[in-house]
Design a protein that fits this description.
Subcellular location: Cell membrane
Protein name: Heavy metal translocating P-type ATPase
Strand content: 5-15%
Structural class: alpha+beta
Strand order of the largest sheet: 10-22-21-20-11-18-19
Number of domains: 4
Shape: elongated
Radius of gyration: 34 Å
Main location: membrane
Distance between the termini: 33 Å
Keywords: ATP-binding, Cell membrane, Membrane, Metal-binding, Nucleotide-binding, Signal, Translocase, Transmembrane, Transmembrane helix
Number of helices: 26
Family: Belongs to the cation transport ATPase (P-type) (TC 3.A.3) family. Type IB subfamily.
Number of strands: 22
Helix content: 55-70%
């Protein structure tokens, strides 16, 4: 029955029931009976059709009970009961349509917003063209308020983009010139130019639409609970009705049993709950390909994660800049970025990005020459600067102690190195690493709370790098240096033990995703192969969306089972009363209607937001988190001043050391300590209220106290220094103080980012 037929069926049934009631009250009992009989006969037609459709599909559902109840009501003259059953069937179908329409509304919105036109520059003037005609390299104008039609890069200026439809993020984000902008996001600021990098069919939003079209609610194992219910409930109902008739000799009792055992709307509870869950996940930037995947996700006990791009950012980031003696980190990074801004190498892009983020000026290079496998060199402000692989050493092949120390450090950290030389002399080294996602550790804790019992990291990366990430995140098992075939074998081993979720993003992850019970693809930057092989796609580049989806899956399944169990129990109780002659057919029909409506409405609770395992923050706390996260980002680079001061502290430089130490102390007292004190006064009380009390911030407050203590110790050392510089007996303690202060600050910043700042992007599901 279509969307139009259901309202007509409901309207006719309700009108007929009310008309019969009015006629009965007016004393026209015969006319009332005729109207009710007509409603019963009309309701019998779609009910029979539903049973026939079910038989064609290979199963006999409990709609058969409705047919028997309607036919029995006509046979024994219980027309009011038949009319009530007709209203009940019509109401159930209307509730189903409403539930599924609401549940799929968010998915439907995804492809209703497909960009259909683009403004392409032709002879310098933007012209409206069909989005399908845009080709890579075309220059487009994106007016204010319009949707970005294709993937591209911002050509000039800064774009302010609303990405909520694609990622679920509520706040607009800024994309500077050269940064990518994905199709499907809305320009929330001034008009900007976009250089297309793909066609509309190959763009991000087109991929999301294809995924959304695959989503359906009818295939989940928990939805088939109704069929399993019917397998024993239908025979039980027929036996109970027959016994009631045989033992009492009254056919009306059999009809009463059939009437109260008519749970057609009950069968809609499980599908409605699952479809509602699909709606909730879509709203959080997660596309689940069907109710079956959502139900299996709710059952999962083992989580297998790829490392690169899943637990880590998936791209190299500058983690440190170590200047050679006599130079500064800012100078080294600016020189490297000046040369690399004309290079297409992935490491060059990371260096240029880091320089821009730190607000460094990057002079224009001259005479740029790129040597594949070696690096890039150019003349920058009259000096020849080379950026690339490690120097081969001097004429005798030797390297300085400083260079050897940096090579050793990079090896221990598992970092990539980019060396910077100026006129043949080492100026510094840039260390890059694929950093662990700030939300990874919290997400894993949330997943364990939600029911995951075993976490496995599966990667093709080197064992030492994988182990270092695994230790930080506390995974149960690290499987490194695995080929795609090895990943498939490992996933199959895990699926043999428990329902297993595999999360990945690359082409090499696609076979493993297909082998898992539930494959989850990081779709924001993942490959097309992985998103096609996956059952669940995270359209936002955030791992915590997986925890959101699992919260929704478990809640939806719980509500579905709860609704089915409650309806079944109440129906059985009503059947007992009907068989004993305590519940006549008309009253039984009204009671069953009330039961079914209550159960359906309970299933629709899955549409409502719920906290799940995510911490719920108020707007003021979110604002505080974003403010202090921004300050963290700005304070991180200057932290290296502290370690550099410690590195330079030896007997030969003791006379010059006070100047560097005063610079460090100025940074501490002028910027860092005010930041820490403000956190203590404003952020920590708010986090205590949000997370359950002041105990949750105790360790962070203790770190603040240690930072204060070490800063005061440094201040006292400077006060004790003589006019000639530091005393020899101060050096060892000063080095320990500076190294300790640097270590505490780095650890403290990481802890705050993981424990607090990773919460800032979330809200109730």
């Amino acid at each position: 029955m279509g969307r139009l037929g259901t309202p007509l069926f409901l309207g006719f049934s309700v009108a007929g029931l009310l008309a019969g009631a009015l006629l009965h009250l007016a004393g026209a009992a015969q006319a009332a009976g005729a109207v009710w009989a007509g409603v019963t006969a009309v309701a019998l037609v779609p009910a029979v059709w539903w049973v026939v459709s079910a038989l064609r599909a290979g199963h006999l559902g409990v709609d058969a009970i409705a047919v028997l109840a309607l036919a029995g009501s006509l046979a024994v003259g219980e027309y009011p009961a038949g009319a009530v059953i007709g209203v009940m069937l019509a109401t159930g179908r209307a509730l189903e349509d409403h539930a599924l329409h609401r549940a799929r509304r968010d998915l439907t919105a995804l492809y209703e917003r497909v960009p259909r036109t683009a403004h392409r520059y032709e002879n310098g003037v933007p012209q409206a063209v069909d989005a399908g005609r845009v080709r890579p390299g075309d220059l487009l104008l994106v007016p204010a308020g319009e949707t970005v039609p294709v993937d591209g890069t911002v050509e000039a200026g800064t774009a302010l983009l609303d990405e909520s439809a694609l990622t679920g993020e509520s706040l607009p984000v800024e994309r500077a010139a050269g940064r990518s902008a994905r199709s499907g996001v809305v320009n929330a600021g001034a008009a900007f130019d976009l250089r297309a990098t793909s066609t509309a069919a190959e763009s991000t939003y087109a991929g999301v639409v294809r995924l959304a079209r695959q989503t359906e609610a009818g295939s989940a194992p928990v939805v088939r609970l109704a069929d399993r219910f019917a397998a024993w409930f239908l025979p039980l109902t027929l036996v109970a009705a027959a016994l009631a008739w045989l033992l009492s000799g009254e056919a009306v009792r059999a009809v009463a049993v059939l009437v109260v055992a008519t749970p057609c709307p009950l069968l809609l509870a499980a599908p409605a709950a699952i479809a509602s869950g699909l709606s909730r996940t879509a709203r959080r930037g997660v596309v689940v390909k069907g109710g079956g995947a959502l139900e299996r996700l709710g059952h999962a006990r083992t989580l297998v994660l790829d490392k690169t791009g899943t637990l880590t950012a998936g791209r190299p980031e500058v983690v440190d800049v170590v200047p050679a003696p006599g130079r500064t980190a800012g100078e080294v990074l600016a020189l490297a970025a000046a040369v690399d801004q004309v290079s297409a190498h992935v490491l060059a892009a990371a260096i240029v990005r880091a320089a821009r983020e730190r607000g460094l000026e990057t002079p224009r290079p001259d005479g740029v020459r790129e040597r594949p496998g070696v690096g890039t060199e150019a003349v920058v402000e009259g000096r020849r600067v080379q950026v690339g692989k490690v120097r081969e050493g001097g004429a005798d092949g030797s390297r300085s102690d400083w260079e050897r120390a940096q090579r050793a450090r990079a090896a221990l950290d598992g970092a990539m190195t980019v060396w910077v030389t100026v006129d043949g002399e080492p100026a510094g080294v840039v260390l890059l690493r694929d950093a662990v996602r700030s939300d990874a550790a919290r997400t894993l804790r949330r997943l364990r709370t939600a029911g995951i019992e075993r976490v496995v990291m599966l990667t093709g990366d080197r064992a030492e790098v994988a182990e270092s990430v695994g230790v930080v995140l506390g995974v149960d098992l690290v499987l490194a240096e695995r080929t795609p075939e090895g990943k498939v074998h490992a996933v199959r081993q895990e699926t043999g033990r428990a329902v297993t979720v595999m999360v990945g993003d690359g082409i090499n992850d696609a076979p493993a995703l297909a082998a898992a019970d539930v494959g989850v693809a990081m779709g924001a930057r993942g490959s097309a192969a992985s998103t096609q092989a996956a059952d669940v796609v995270l359209t936002a580049d955030r791992l915590d969306r997986l925890a959101d989806a699992m919260d929704v899956a478990r809640r939806s399944r719980r509500i579905a089972v709860q609704s089915a169990a409650a309806g079944m129990a109440l129906s059985l109780l009503a059947m007992a009363f009907a068989a004993a002659g305590r519940l006549p057919p008309a009253a039984g029909a009204l009671l069953q209607e009330a039961i079914d409506v209550a159960v359906i409405l309970n299933a629709l609770r899955a549409l409502r937001p719920a906290r799940g395992t995510r911490a719920v923050l108020d707007a003021e706390t979110e604002d505080l988190l974003r403010r202090f996260e921004t300050e963290h980002y700005e304070l991180k680079p200057p932290l290296e001043l502290i370690r550099q001061a410690a590195d330079e502290l030896d007997g030969r430089s003791a006379g010059k050391a006070p100047d560097r130490l005063r610079e460090v102390l100025g940074f501490l007292t002028g910027r860092l300590l005010p930041h820490e004190h403000a956190e203590e006064r404003r952020l920590y009380p708010a986090m205590g209220r949000a997370l359950g009390g002041p105990e949750v911030t105790m360790t962070m407050s203790r770190a603040h106290a240690e930072i204060d203590r070490l800063a005061r110790r440094l201040e006292r050392h400077l006060a004790l220094a003589s006019d000639g510089g530091l005393r020899a007996e101060q050096l060892d303690d000063l080095r320990a103080c500076l190294y300790g202060l640097h270590a505490v600050l780095v650890l403290h910043f990481d802890q705050e980012e993981e424990a607090y700042f990773s919460l800032a992007a979330g809200s109730a599901l």
